[in-house]
Amino acid sequence: MTTSVPTDDTVPSSSEAGWKSYLADLWNAPPSAKAALAGCLLLMLVSPSGLSAMTTFVVPSFAEDTGVAESAGILVFVTFPLLIGPITLPFAGRWVDRLGARRVAIPSAVLYAGLTALVPLCGSSVPLLAVVLSLASTFGFMSGLAVVFKVVSTWLPQHKGVGFALIGVASSLAAAVFSPVFQWLISGSAGLGWKGAYLLVAVVIALVAVPTAMFLISEPTAPRVTGPEVKLPRLPGIPLSKAVRTRVWISITISLAFAAAGPMTVRQNAVSFFSERGFSEATVSLSLSALFAASVVGLLVGGMILDRTDRPRVVVPMLAAVPVGLGIAFVNHGSMPLLFLAMIFLGFATGAESSLGPFLIARYFGLASFAQLQGLTLAISTLSLGMSPFLVSAVQTATGSYSVPVLALTALTVVAVALAVSLPKFPPQWKIGNAPDQTTGSA
């Protein structure tokens, strides 16, 4: 195993510049960069991440409609899509690296909308639902996460942290607003049920994602040069095959996977978990809005701090909010202030984690294989997101208690914090224009 440290292809960290210069440079970004960033935000609004609040209320509605256990509903609507969909992200990242963001985003957005519209037509057939939902999730991830981080990295290389934060803000704000809306649509007075909600969502995806991918998404283009001896600059960075063998990448991936599992598990089991603690479904939906709203704060604070520091240990308190929030949620029985406090801790961590992964990948390993490496990292961490809610629900069904699975989950999040503590100092930022760095050192 090796650690990879860039040497010649780097520039000083942006932390050496003043805040005024940092914000002015971001404000004065080219119009194409601003349009591309706006497109990224719109794609995230209707991505599986932005619409994640829906499944919290879809699962109980589906279980009541079909008579299946809620754990089976989580398996179909959450676990399978999150296990199968992100597997394609490394391949999608490779396509983005080679073909360009727009050429991947457009067909993916079309298929995402079409497959989402097919979900209500599957009725109560669990196998058919699992297939269609997994395919819809696959193309949803491809049109969103596989594209947006590469677009931001290339358009805003000195503002990656805040750029990634804004991407997460879009999905978090969407989820915060959509949480009570979906509760009203699915199980509230609107009475659409889970089938009607999916039809409505498919229409929204078609109206937002497809035009956005066609007209807003872009990447910087290299200037035209001619002549047999002129070589175009290449994005610097460490190759994928070397990066994945480093202790740094392994620590980042495991810590993000373990930490992200905590908030995701609470969100997907929120109705049953908190009902046992004396809270109504409407109250739970409001607390979820608080979680998503707090994630906006985590995203913005975390993103700006990351852009301005060479000390990776600033990520430790961001991840430490997860075991703290889980502990408060677990011991709380009927206290409204404690419910919202727990969700705020979990939300802050969720927001910070959303920008941590791509930022750490870009800082430690550069941009040469960024989309592929970020896709692989996200795919692995998303396996945890898909499995943890189902496993906790299944153990609760078998034992009649959330005690054992939630305590085990809390222990894993403590491991995530320990791994974050072990991360080495950030290298200087990569300098665009040279060939990818090949430097590796012994562990």
Radius of gyration from CA coordinates:
21 Å
**How many β-strand stretches?**
4
Strand count, sense and closure of the main sheet? 2 strands, antiparallel
**Would you give the CATH topology?**
Growth Hormone, Chain: A
The portion of residues forming beta strands comes to: under 5%
Question: What's the level 1 CATH class?
Answer: Mainly Alpha
End-to-end Cα distance:
6 Å
What is the N-to-C succession of helices and strands? Answer: EEHHHHHHHHHHHHHHHHHHEE
How many discrete domains? Answer: 1
Shape: globular
Structural class: mainly alpha
InterPro entries: MFS, MFS_dom, MFS_trans_sf, Proton-linked_MCT
Subcellular location: Cell membrane
Main location: membrane
Keywords: Membrane, Transmembrane, Transmembrane helix
Q: How are the SSEs ordered, and which strands pair?
A:
Elements: E1 2-3, E2 10-11, H1 19-27, H2 31-45, H3 53-66, H4 70-84, H5 89-99, H6 101-118, H7 126-143, H8 145-155, H9 160-186, H10 193-215, H11 240-243, H12 247-268, H13 270-275, H14 281-307, H15 315-331, H16 336-365, H17 370-399, H18 403-421, E3 429-430, E4 441-442
Antiparallel strand pairs: 1-4, 2-3
Helix pairs in contact: 2-8, 2-9, 2-10, 3-4, 3-9, 4-7, 4-17, 5-6, 5-8, 5-17, 6-7, 6-8, 6-10, 7-8, 8-9, 8-17, 9-14, 9-16, 12-15, 12-16, 12-17, 12-18, 14-16, 15-16, 15-18, 16-17, 17-18
Protein name: MFS transporter
Main location: membrane
GO cellular component, one term: plasma membrane
